[in-house]
């Protein structure tokens, strides 16, 4: 597929990027940022880069405002986690573009390297299995960036037919006569980390969201930016009385604050592990982790023990009514089932809703802001924990 020269890309954009753009405009915040893009799945041959860069150049003022683009060329090889694209530009020039250019790259890589073709019926069935595992809790489709924007309406329809209650883009949610759904992106928190310091980034980004968004938009804070999920959730809940929920999206590089990890279990006997679990979950009942579910309880990213730690902290500090939304990896129904089984074992509800993207196979690309500054030459390292700058001398400057 080829991108048009210019088009109404906002309807294909995750809603939270549009809201971040609006907030930054109203807050008069437009620093330069360095944004790096990588792919976990590899190695492979680059594809979609020409189309993605063309889209960026045609739909932003990046060049006029002194921005730069560095990229690998289509046909070149790439490795997992290697930086394949680097953008340096005022944040307002690029923050709305991420969904579309990531989708172009992700789908192009999957088609070229894996002969992957979009199977809408399979996507619908995968969503149905996730929705079934979640029970009565709402599931929203958050996967627009994983495939080409021209297919987003069809994929969102398949997700909704599979039981999803909404989608993150306006074009996707139109099937239900709704607007796209969205919370707060890490990109917005990055700007507040630069402006006010990392320790208050989550709180201050949420306060700005609350200040500028219409009253009918649900207030949901994203709490994993600093990998201090407990500290940030308590600080934010205390500062934003209208807070309805928090989203936990801990990345695969991190162990959630307060969680148990595989390292905590190393070199321990079964009785020692049993005692550790009893103490952690504050119970005298034996905690038996189902075979095969250990990675969901003690692994990196969003884990059972990490979410439990956040839920417990909220409850113990008077925030029982604040709900928890989970994202990152929940397109896998087995992960959802592991969490619902864990709830029965530990006797606590862990989550109230899900944001789900991975209901079809792709080579998902990811963007992280890794530096921020008043000018392109004064940017300093500023990134969410686990995602630091990875320079790549193979990149060639395009703009």
From TrEMBL:
It comes from Methanimicrococcus hacksteinii. Transmembrane segments: none annotated. Signal peptide: none annotated. Residues 29-107 form the Quinolinate phosphoribosyl transferase N-terminal domain. It comes from the Archaea. It holds the Pfam family QRPTase_N. InterPro entries: Aldolase_TIM, NAPRTase-like, Nicotinate_pribotase-like_C, Quinolinate_PRibosylTase_N_sf, Quinolinate_PRibosylTrfase_N. This is Quinolinate phosphoribosyl transferase N-terminal domain-containing protein.
């Amino acid at each position: 597929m080829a991108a048009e020269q210019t088009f109404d890309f906002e309807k294909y954009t995750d809603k939270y990027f549009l809201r971040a753009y609006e907030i930054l405009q109203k807050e008069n915040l437009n620093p330069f940022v360095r944004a790096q893009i990588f792919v976990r799945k590899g190695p492979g041959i680059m594809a979609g880069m020409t189309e993605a860069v063309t889209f960026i150049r045609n739909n932003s003022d990046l060049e006029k405002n002194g921005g730069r683009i560095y990229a690998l060329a289509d046909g070149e090889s790439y490795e997992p986690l290697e930086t394949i694209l680097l953008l340096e530009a005022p944040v307002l020039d690029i923050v709305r573009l991420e969904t579309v250019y990531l989708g172009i790259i992700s789908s192009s890589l999957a088609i070229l390297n894996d002969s992957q073709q979009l199977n809408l019926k399979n996507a619908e069935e995968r969503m149905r299995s996730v929705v079934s595992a979640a029970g009565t809790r709402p599931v929203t489709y958050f996967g627009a960036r994983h495939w080409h924007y021209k297919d987003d309406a069809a994929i969102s329809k398949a997700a909704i037919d599979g039981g999803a209650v909404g989608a993150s883009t306006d074009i996707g949610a139109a099937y239900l006569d709704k607007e796209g759904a969205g919370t707060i992106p890490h990109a917005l928190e990055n700007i507040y980390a630069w402006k006010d310091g990392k320790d208050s980034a989550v709180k201050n980004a949420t306060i700005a969201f609350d200040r500028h968004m219409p009253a009918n938009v649900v207030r949901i804070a994203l709490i994993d930016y600093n990998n201090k999920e407990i500290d940030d959730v308590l600080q934010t809940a205390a500062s934003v009385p209208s807070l309805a929920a928090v989203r936990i999206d801990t990345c695969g590089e991190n162990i959630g604050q307060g969680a148990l990890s595989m390292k905590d279990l190393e070199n321990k006997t079964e009785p020692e592990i049993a005692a550790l679990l009893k103490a952690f979950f504050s119970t005298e009942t034996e905690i038996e982790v189902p075979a095969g579910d250990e990675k969901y309880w003690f692994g990196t990213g969003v884990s059972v023990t990490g979410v439990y730690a956040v839920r417990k902290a909220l409850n113990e500090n008077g925030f029982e009514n604040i709900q928890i939304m989970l994202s990152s990896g929940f397109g896998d129904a087995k992960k959802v089932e592991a969490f619902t089984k864990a709830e029965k074992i530990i006797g606590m509800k862990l989550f109230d809703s899900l944001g789900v993207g991975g209901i079809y196979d792709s080579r998902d690309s990811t963007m992280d802001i890794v530096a921020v500054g008043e000018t392109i030459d004064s940017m300093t390292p500023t990134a969410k924990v686990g995602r630091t700058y990875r320079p790549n001398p193979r990149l060639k400057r395009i703009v």
